[in-house]
Structures are given as C-alpha cells and as structure tokens.
Automatic annotation (TrEMBL):
PROSITE patterns: PROKAR_LIPOPROTEIN. It comes from Parvicella tangerina. It holds the Pfam family DUF5074. This is YncE family protein. It comes from the Bacteria. InterPro entries: DUF5074, Haem_d1_sf, Host-pathogen_enzymatic-act, WD40/YVTN_repeat-like_dom_sf.
Length: 347
C-alpha cells in the first residue's frame, strides 16, 4: 500500500477515536456553514476537500483570487445535497467538471458555469482519477482491478480495461493511455486505437502522477512505497526511460508532481515545495517554500498568472487551508477550506 494511503488509514483510526465522544452534527454531512447565496465567477478556483473517511462530509471550497472572497460548502449550498464520502479528484471535460467521490463509488457532474448538478456516474467501486479522450472517460480504481470506460454523453460505464490490480494516476498522450500501478513498479501503456497493451515500463516503486512537458516527454514520480525503496523521478521519451533521478533518503515522501509550462519546470511536494529544472542531473536538496507549521498535501499552479496554491491538511481532522504564493514564492494569501483539501481546479 502506498505510504499516503497508509497514512490516511492511520489518521482515519485516530479520527474515529477522537470523534467517538463528539456530536455527529459537528462533523457529519450536515451543512451549518452553507451559504445562502453562492454564485460562480469567471476566475474561480475550486478546492476539493476529501472530508473525513467514512463521515460523508466531502466538500468544495470556492475562492475568487481577485477579491479573495471564500465560499464554503459550495456544492451543497447550490444543489441542496451533500457530495458524499471522500472527494478524491477533479476532471474537466468541455463545460462539465467531474467530481470523483472515492468512498461513495461514484462521480458527480456539475456545470462549470453555475456549479449546478447535471448528472452522475454510479456503480463504481473505489474510483480514484479520471481522464477523457473523445467522448469517453477513463476512471482508475483502488479495488476493481480495471479501468472503467464511460460514455460521457450518457454518463454510463460501457466497458472495462483489465488491469488486474490497483490503478491510480492516468494520462493520455497520442492515443496512448498511461496507467500508474502504485502497488508495483509499473506504468502500463495501453493503445486506445487497437485496444491492447503495448508496453510495461518498469521504474521505481509506487509510481504516482505522470505529467507531459513541452518537449513531449513524460515525467513520472515514484514515492518508493511505504518506505520500501528510495523514491525516484523518471523521464520517458516515448520509447525508453531516458533519465532517472533518485531522492536522498528512503524516508523522503514526494508527491503531487506538477508542471509549469511557462517556466518549463517541475514542482513537487516533499514536506516542503521543491522545483526542478528539466535539464538538471540531480534533485534539489532545499525547498523553495518550507512547510513550517503546515501539512502540505495538494498542489496547483494557476495557468493565468503562475501563482502557486498549496493545500494544508493541518491534522486531517479539522478544517484545512490553502496557502497562495506568487511565481517568485512570495506569500499572497491564506484562506480556510473544508476538511483535508487536496484537489485544485482553476476555471
């Protein structure tokens, strides 16, 4: 099991012990903080908050970066019902935003102009991440041993790509679907045209997020599992692994690989925030932003001005927050969110 999921499991046990004597209305899907008037703007940033595992209190926080106005419980305020249990990730397709609700086994769909609910994909097991290609969606899963293929017009699962194990982060490039399998050291390459596997890339233990950079190459971050191997970062040129960079210690815990296409550099979290020039032959040892008094958990780069958004899960029990920095790493703002903020979507 990846160390992030292991940590989340441990925190879930702690949450259960801490909250046993608490009143349920303080932590459950009730919505005392819902705002009566929430409206979408053209510059919104949405923060997906996982919520406490098993409590059904996933939520979305809306942030307007110019006015710095924050709205909590946006989905429930607008639609009148709660999202479900554990908001894992976002996926954008045309004018719809897909909200992957991991522990509820579903994907809720909202209109990006108004955030009103327009549909749902149900019958999933433990969905994790979603990508789209043409009129099809592809959803990874923790337990189902396959990738669900979705007809995006009907919001129906129409087929499955067999994987045989846990699938996590996905990326589509040149009709190829790349599938990270975090309980192995594999990234699978699946041809969407011929509908068959064409390669298995053997890299570091527990591959996670995959990003494409300006020169067309892919970069893949491996966490090393739960302190099983030293984490690694790999560059793939379409044919072979052309570069492998190793972290300094088996206790390193890198995550959230993100690409800044304007400055042509990578970012990732490893306690603090680190940045990497693509031509570098080694990984940096000093963060550009320290995580002092914070639990860095999610990461996003605003495509409009390159501002950096880092989510802070705090103690994984109480409400979290987001730290906003400019492209030179100067603090811009800090705002509160729901519980365990992670996914970030820039409108």
């Amino acid at each position: 099991m990846g160390r992030i999921l292991m940590n989340r499991f441990i925190y879930s046990i702690l949450v259960a012990l801490i909250l046993f004597s608490c009143k349920k209305e303080e932590i459950g899907p009730q919505c005392p903080s819902c705002e009566s008037e929430v409206s979408a703007t053209t510059t919104d940033v949405l923060i997906g908050c996982e919520g406490n595992f098993g409590w059904g209190n996933a939520s979305i926080t809306k942030y307007e970066p110019v006015s710095k106005v924050v709205s909590q419980q946006v989905f429930q305020s607008i639609n009148g019902f709660s999202l479900g249990d554990v908001l894992q990730s976002f996926c954008i397709y045309q004018d719809k935003l897909y909200l992957i609700i991991n522990n509820s086994g579903k994907v809720e769909v909202i209109d990006t102009a108004s955030y009103t609910h327009v549909g749902a994909i149900t019958g999933l097991n433990s969905p994790r991440f979603m990508v789209t290609h043409g009129t099809r969606g592809y959803i990874s899963d923790l337990y189902s041993n396959g990738i669900s293929i979705v007809d995006l017009g009907a919001n129906q699962v129409v087929d499955t790509i067999p994987v045989g194990r846990w699938s996590e982060h996905l990326l589509i490039d040149n009709n190829m679907l790349y599938i990270a399998c975090p309980d192995t050291n594999w990234v699978l390459k699946y041809d969407l045209t011929t509908e068959g596997y064409v390669d298995t890339m053997v890299i570091g233990k527990s591959p996670g997020k995959i990003v494409k950079v300006n020169n067309g190459n892919l970069w893949m971050l491996c966490s090393g599992g739960y302190q099983e191997e030293i984490p690694t970062l790999h560059e793939y040129d379409g044919t072979t692994i052309s570069k492998t960079l190793s972290f300094g210690s088996i206790t390193d815990n890198p995550s959230m690989l993100t690409y800044d296409s304007i400055h042509d550099r990578l970012f990732y979290l490893n306690d603090g925030l680190f940045t990497l020039e693509l031509t570098s032959s080694s990984l940096p040892s000093i963060p550009v932003i320290n995580s002092t008094n914070a639990t860095f958990y999610g990461l996003g780069i605003d495509p409009n001005n390159r501002d950096i958004y880092i989510t802070d899960a705090v103690d994984y029990v109480q409400s979290g927050r987001v730290l906003r920095f400019d492209s030179l790493y100067h603090p811009v703002d800090t705002f509160s969110t729901g519980i365990i903020p992670q996914a970030i979507w820039f409108k």
